[in-house]
Specification:
Order of helices and strands: HHHH
Helix content: 55-70%
Distance between the termini: 19 Å
Structural class: mainly alpha
Mean pLDDT: 89
Strand content: under 5%
Radius of gyration: 15 Å
Shape: elongated
Number of domains: 1
Largest sheet: none
């Protein structure tokens, strides 16, 4: 991939994109990777930001489904699993971005809209 950013900037912005899910669950969390996507010219950083945006959208969808199912008591185990996935996967992505800055972390089993 074509590199226009130095490795330190690539590590920082890619990790920030994936870690933005910990800021909060509303606009700020997805706003960070959107801003990074719009500002950066580096292809790896852009792909990391897109992957983080896709993860946010997928998690919002599954939290909504689990919330609806929790009303009939069959979504409670799904809520527990989503909580674990929502916490662990971004941490894995951050470590991957910091240890392998020239490749993009791909979240498994998500629908990629961008």
């Amino acid at each position: 991939m074509h590199s226009t950013e130095d490795t330190g900037t690539r590590k920082l912005l890619s990790a920030l994109s994936h870690g933005s899910i910990f800021f909060n669950t509303l606009i700020l969390a997805v706003g960070v990777p959107i801003a990074i996507l719009l500002i950066s010219k580096d292809s790896v950083i852009k792909e990391s930001a897109k992957e983080a945006i896709n993860f946010h959208i997928n998690m919002w969808f599954w939290w909504t489904v689990a919330g609806i199912l929790a009303w009939v008591l069959i979504g409670i185990p799904l809520l527990f699993v989503l909580g674990i996935v929502n916490f662990i996967m971004p941490i894995v992505a951050i470590f991957y971005s910091l240890s392998q800055p020239n490749t993009v972390f791909r979240y498994p089993l998500i629908l990629r809209l961008f």
